[in-house]
Design goal:
The complex is a heterodimer of chains A (394) and B (308). With 394 residues, chain A is α/β, with parallel strands linked by helices. Chain A contains 13 helices and 17 strands. In chain B, strands 2-1-3-4-6-5-7-8 form an 8-stranded mixed β-sheet, with helices on both faces. The two termini of chain B are 25 Å apart. Classes of the chains: A alpha/beta (394), B alpha/beta (308).
Chain lengths: 394, 308
């Protein structure tokens, strides 16, 4: 039986990991993801999982050992945040290039310098081209649900790619919320046994993993990686459909909130969507046609579907909790503008707001201000400032 | 252990056709090491000469399951493989007994991979780590490493007019660093003394928990010698006590070979182009220093053995 509980994001993900009961977890503590590792270690010490837990000496080794375990034929997981993810960088590309279905919760936290432990999306945004599937989560419930679905997505024979499931540091990782947790046996049945086709411990059929490609093969193998990513969207939707059957909760490529008839839309990732939805409701009360699009799958990017959902809007604001320093806005804005380039109809005016870096709060007034800006842009037909840093002392 | 005849009839787990240079000691060392394996084995290797020469896609020289991950993480990677083995064995998904060997050159072991190696040894994974020590970053073109001996000329420590001696620093004593982890077995070996080396790999595989073997592996390009002389150079390294053969079992030191007539280290140095500059007038003091270092290390080793 599923149960409704008050739970933090970290507790929810540690609980999902317990229920997944992976063969191997190799992890290293880092704020604000530490708790996931700690709670999971407690599950190991008290026999609530069968997992072999590797207490590595760094995140680089965490990902290296996870890669080794996954290549060996185990269902393997890790968890990290921020600098930890940055230290894994080299290995992220290898995990994807070796086509290993590793699943890792990542708790979004700003990158140094200056050192900061609070939320922004610089860490996972920087890993967006690493070949990992990226799924973002607004709250503990979504993070929990996404992590369980990620196992199925990663291990799907058409996919075989690693997946990171992210949620906002502290805001969600340490914030108590309501969530409905599935029963252990339901989760186990949903994810099924992991049966890899080729793996190191199949000693009767020896394989070489990580061979050297020169110019005659490297390109083909990287092309195959792109091909695998092209299969992800369908698998994400199929897994979501099956997940709805066990949970009653519906997941799509992205979440469209009062968007269909909206004239002004905000696109946002993770917890700020909650704040923005409140503003949408308030403005709707006043008769204003506003809506919201919340990203779920960011890599691969469902560009056609998102462009379709936003086409015909009078103005769109993209909220980025990370800067690209290209001076063309944040990473989500850049991707979305490219996605909208080929959308049918007249060009939708789009602006970018970089907000909440290093855990800076974003409040209702600021979001309402963004909708005001959009209405002004629609009225005047002019964009005076394409990229705005929201809530910063200039 | 098996006789030479028996060993010669064993299947080669690292087979011919790889692209290592003629006279390269690394594949010689690893073929010998794999002769000690009597169960199934999975091998991991750091980025480096051995990896690039044996796994050029779509070919592989490995007749056993093999993983290369990156440069600095051979030990961490194999610790993941070994952990997967324990997990899957516990679940009954794997029935056979499998051994685990992690490999790395001196770059991947002494330097960039030291943290990963230290972590894996401290955690107690049941694996044997073998460092094939060719005393410089040979794969990238002979740059100095912390394993490069004092006085060697490399592309990043070239002997020149301002620095006529080549590398100024003494090499890191990695075997001692590993022994300080108090792992059940640590040893130093040379493929020239194949019987000693294979016996050490057998011991290392037999102990429960982590084991480390540092094996000398001359590089003909980096050391600059005639590729026909690979084995001779190893013999001389042992005979001069530059590279003592010894093992540390549960803290007890045994010196496996004590040359009856210890040769001067210059006999070994002068055979190698990388030390040629040391024999030019003006570098006599450096030669003396190197001999003093070798003598000091050797005497300390003998003293440790005597302590039991």
């Amino acid at each position: 039986m599923s149960k409704r509980v008050a739970i933090t994001g970290n507790e929810a993900l540690a609980e999902a990991m317990r229920q997944i009961n992976p063969d191997v977890v190799a992890a290293y503590p880092i704020t604000p993801a530490t708790e996931i590792v700690q709670i999971f270690a407690d599950s190991v010490s008290n026999g609530r999982v069968d997992t072999e837990f590797v207490t590595v000496e760094s995140e680089h080794s965490a990902m290296s050992a996870t890669i080794g375990a996954s290549a060996a034929g185990a269902r393997a997981m890790t968890a990290t945040s921020s600098q930890g993810l940055a230290l894994m960088w080299e290995m992220l590309y290898i995990a994807a290039g070796l086509r290993l279905p590793i699943v890792a919760p990542i708790v979004n936290r700003a990158l140094s310098a200056p050192i900061n432990i609070h939320c922004d999306h610089s860490d996972t945004m920087g890993a967006r081209d690493s070949g990992w599937i990226q799924i973002y989560s607004e709250d503990a419930q979504e993070a929990y649900d996404n992590l369980i679905q990620a196992i199925r997505i990663s291990e799907h024979p058409d996919v075989l790619l690693p997946t990171m499931v992210t949620m906002d540091g502290f805001i969600v990782s340490h914030g108590m919320g309501n969530a409905e947790l599935l029963a252990d046996d339901v989760v186990q049945k949903f994810i099924g046994e992991y049966e890899p086709e080729h793996y190191l411990l199949d000693v009767e059929n020896p394989i070489t993993v990580g061979a050297l490609d020169f110019a005659d093969w490297y390109f083909e193998h990287r092309r195959q990686l792109a091909d695998a990513h092209s299969k992800v969207q369908d698998v994400v939707l199929q897994v979501a459909k099956e997940f709805k059957e066990i949970s009653g909760r519906e997941y799509k490529l992205f979440d469209a909130y009062r968007l269909d008839d909206a004239e002004y839309a905000i696109v946002v990732i993770n917890s700020a969507a909650g704040t923005a939805k409140t503003v949408v409701d308030e403005l709707r009360e006043k008769g204003l046609k506003v809506g919201l699009l919340k990203i779920r799958l960011f890599r691969p990017f469902p560009h056609k579907e998102i462009a379709e959902a936003l086409s015909g809007k009078k103005a769109v604001a993209v909220l980025d909790r990370a800067d690209s320093l290209s001076l063309m806005g944040g990473p989500l804005y850049i991707d979305l503008r490219a996605a909208m380039y080929d959308s049918p109809g007249s060009r939708v005016p789009m602006v970018n707001y970089i907000y909440g870096l290093g855990g800076r709060d974003v409040n209702l007034e600021q979001i309402a201000g963004v909708y005001d800006d959009l209405m002004e842009i629609a009225k005047t037909g002019k964009i005076t400032q394409p990229v705005t840093y929201l809530g910063v002392r200039e | 252990m098996a006789s030479l005849k028996e060993l010669s009839m064993k299947e080669e787990l690292l087979c011919g056709g790889h692209r290592a240079c003629a006279g390269c000691a690394a594949p010689i060392a690893i073929r010998q090491a794999l002769m000690a394996v009597d169960t199934d084995v999975v091998v991991g290797c750091a980025t480096g000469c051995l990896e690039v020469t044996t796994t050029i896609y779509p070919f592989t020289a490995w007749n056993v399951p093999f993983i290369h991950n990156a440069f600095e993480n051979s030990a961490a990677t194999v610790s993941g493989v070994e952990t997967a083995y324990r997990a899957l064995k516990k679940k009954g998904k794997i029935k056979r007994d499998i051994q685990f060997i992690a490999l790395g050159g001196d770059g991947g072991t002494y330097d960039i991979g030291l943290q990963s190696l230290s972590g894996a040894m401290e955690r107690g994974h049941d694996m044997v780590y073998i460092c094939y020590d060719n005393q410089a970053y040979m794969n990238t073109g002979i740059q100095r490493s912390s394993a490069t001996p004092k006085g060697a000329s490399t592309t990043t420590s070239p002997a020149g007019s301002a620095i006529p001696t080549g590398k100024k620093q003494i090499r890191k004593d990695l075997t001692e660093v590993m022994a300080a982890h108090h792992i059940p077995y640590a040893a130093q070996a040379s493929p020239s003394n194949w019987k000693d080396f294979i016996r050490k790999v057998e011991k290392a595989l037999a102990v429960e928990g982590p084991a480390f073997i540092n094996v000398l592996a001359p590089c003909r390009l980096g050391w600059r010698f005639d590729p026909a002389e690979t084995i001779d150079l190893m013999r001389l390294a042992v005979a001069t006590c530059f590279w003592p053969l010894y093992e540390i079992e549960d803290g007890v030191v045994t010196v496996n070979h004590k040359p009856r007539n210890k040769k001067p280290v210059s006999e070994w140095l002068k055979k190698q182009g990388r030390f040629r500059h040391l024999f030019a007038p003006g570098n006599e003091a450096m030669l003396e220093e190197i001999q003093e270092d070798v003598d000091g290390n050797w005497n300390r080793l003998l003293a440790r053995e005597a302590m039991g």
